[in-house]
Amino acid sequence: MMATLAALATFVACESSPAPGDGAQQGGGAMAQPTPIEHITPEGVARLPVFTPAVRVGDLVFLSGAIGTPPSGELRVVEGGVGPETRATMDNIGSVLEAAGLGFEDLVKCTVFLADIADYAEMNEAYVTYFEGMEPPARSAMAGSGLALGAKVEIECIARGK
Length: 162
What we know:
This protein is of the alpha+beta class. It has a single domain (32-160), classed as CATH 3.30.1330.40. 25% of the residues lie in helices and 23% in strands. A six-stranded mixed sheet has the order 1-2-3-6-4-5, covered by helices on one side. Strand 2 and strand 3 (60-67) form a beta hairpin. The chain starts with a helix and ends with a strand.
């Protein structure tokens, strides 16, 4: 019983003492302010009112999943299949990056969702053209059903901020 009480007292003491660098000041001071979030919404990129195309937090920019909508901002997928959809998707990502003051060279991670994983080679053929002359970012690709607007390709990314 004494060992249990000692362990509980140690746990409570650890929980109530701020750890170095956790934003709390020793001696009852105010908490540090959280890192501000900047919402990035470029003109002309199709979007739904339930998400922001990108947010900057500190030195990172998180891009929402993009699909191959036309540059007019219409909420429909471009015609022609996986290749044209991938190019339109990457163009939309480029618009978001530009609005954030960034470029494709600033991408550090992309995640590709394909309605049919059999479309991987065709998607990849269009995707790689956006990274000519540079090292591409880390990337994952997977099949995902029910992409927005019946898209065949959706890509979300993380970029380093400047």
